[in-house]
Write a structure and sequence with these properties.
The chain is of the alpha+beta class. The protein has a single domain, classed as Cytochrome P450 (Cytochrome p450, Orthogonal Bundle), CATH 1.10.630.10. The protein contains 17 helices and twelve strands. It has a five-stranded mixed beta sheet. It has a three-stranded antiparallel beta sheet with strand order 4-12-9. The chain has a two-stranded antiparallel sheet with strand order 6-7.
């Protein structure tokens, strides 16, 4: 593969005239990014259309972009076509806002994820899980197959509703899951095009589908807000947002901004937890030795009872299984930033308006930090091995000021669900069912994960 290395740019694939490496990214983005890392190293340059992309893979460079000089790297782009895809759904919520608006939102939302408050939410995680396990017992008794990926998406959505908004959104789970899948496919196509995105012309099937996604998600969010208001304020994040007042003006959050925050938090919580749980069950079913050790820890510590927040420090291997799954299937497989002012990384000038790309998926497959990186081995996250690795070689929830505000909550939720379900059932993969990664905003299993359920201990629920 030819290189660009004329002193101005770091090495990287040359690509084709006008479109650059677009076709390779479209065909298989995960393979492309792993391949170019292995061929060109820690700082790589390529183009998608006219857009210059700098792909960075060294922990020090990642620290520079996401932490030390983070104010020079914006989440949003100057591409109006791209923003026309992102804007209608995410609006000006925490995931995409910038500057003072983002800082104000972060201050409002951060207290909802204080460790003491997180601990108080554990029963709102375990109770919906109990209900799911009860429904599974009838399925297991009949020997039926289920798509455990879909089950985990539904469970995570219900938990988001209960823990963040104190609202039951079970009735909307099918519509939201379907809309999110379609919306993420459209969004991902436009991300991959970068500088040569095409507008959503009218009339077009893609635009109509996107409008339907927007309407479905809006309907769900406004129903959450309305139902919450009917119940009155409680000790939850949505109540905090509704009651918040600007220190200078005394004004509360507007209806549109409230909608944006609920939408962002719902999507972030749902899309982080559901796919990660799906991959956990796939990996455990594929590695019986790891599964046996997990079951031994759960039996020793919990003895079949429902886990609580206080149990989590006594379940280190359970946590290690989660961390190893996040290494292989990071919730967000790519992070991109737009350069505000010219910067320097690795001896090269990184011009303003170019895109810096970081991939937690690729970081998790670097031989220099992970021996035999494709192997599922939770022992990598033992205290001794963790201490030997650079901090920025593992960033499943991002890092720096814009790291995921709910990372600790997500890890607690994953650990509680894994402990609870792991005691009750052993999901076994259905032979012959294809397992393929779908590269959306997160990494979903494209065809789901079909399993049969085998009950372990009745007492677990």
């Amino acid at each position: 593969m030819p290189r660009i290395n004329n002193g101005k740019y770091p090495p990287g694939p040359l690509g084709l005239p006008f479109i650059g490496v677009l076709l390779r990214v479209w065909r298989d983005p995960l393979h492309f990014f792993v391949d170019v890392y292995r061929k060109y190293g820690e700082l790589i340059h390529f183009k998608i259309g006219p857009q210059h992309i700098y792909f960075i893979n060294h922990p020090d460079s990642i620290k520079h972009v996401l932490q030390d000089n983070h104010s020079n790297y914006r989440r949003r782009t100057s591409d109006r076509k791209f923003e026309s895809i992102l804007g209608p759904i995410l609006g000006q919520g925490l995931l995409v806002s910038e500057g003072e608006l983002w800082r104000r939102q972060r201050r409002l939302i951060q207290p909802a994820f204080h460790p003491q408050r997180i601990a108080s939410l554990s029963s709102k995680i375990t109770t919906p899980t109990i209900a799911m396990l009860e429904s599974w017992r009838a399925i297991a008794g009949r020997g039926e197959q289920i798509d455990i990926a879909e089950e985990m998406m539904h469970l995570s959505l219900r938990i988001v509703g209960q823990t963040l908004f104190n609202v039951d959104i079970s009735d909307d789970k099918e519509a939201i899951n379907r809309a999110m899948g379609i919306g993420l496919e459209i969004f991902n196509r436009h991300v991959q095009r970068m500088g040569i995105r095409l507008p959503l012309r009218f009339p077009s099937s893609e635009k109509r589908r996107y409008q339907q996604v927007h309407q479905t998600l809006d309907k769900a969010v406004y129903r959450i807000i309305a139902e919450h208001r009917r119940h009155g304020p409680t000790n939850d994040l949505l109540s905090s947002l509704m009651q918040a007042r600007d220190k200078e003006t005394g004004e509360g959050i507007g209806e549109r901004q409230l909608r944006d925050e609920v939408m962002n938090l719902m999507i972030a919580g749902y899309e982080t937890i559901g796919p990660t749980l799906a991959w956990i069950w796939y990996l455990l079913a594929s590695h019986p030795d790891v599964e046996r050790r997990l079951h031994a820890e759960l039996a020793s510590v919990l003895g079949g009872r429902v886990p609580t927040f206080d149990d989590l420090p006594n379940l280190p291997y359970t946590r290690m299984v989660i961390e190893e799954t996040l290494r292989l299937y990071s919730p967000g497989w790519f992070i991109f930033r737009t350069v505000v002012r010219d910067d320097e990384i690795g001896g090269y000038t990184i011009p303003a308006k170019s895109i810096v790309l970081i991939s937690p998926y690729v970081l998790g497959r670097q031989n220099v930090y992970w021996e035999n990186p494709e192997r599922f081995n939770p022992e990598r996250f033992s205290p001794s091995q963790t201490a030997e690795r650079p901090r920025f070689a593992y960033i499943p929830f991002g890092i720096g000021p814009r790291a995921c505000v709910g990372a600790s909550f997500a890890l607690m939720e994953l650990q509680l669900i894994l402990a609870q379900v792991g005691q009750a059932f052993r999901p076994k993969l259905v032979a012959g069912h294809p397992i393929e990664i779908q590269t959306l905003f997160t990494l979903r299993p494209r065809h789901g994960i079909l399993v049969t359920l085998h009950e372990r201990h009745r007492k677990a629920a």
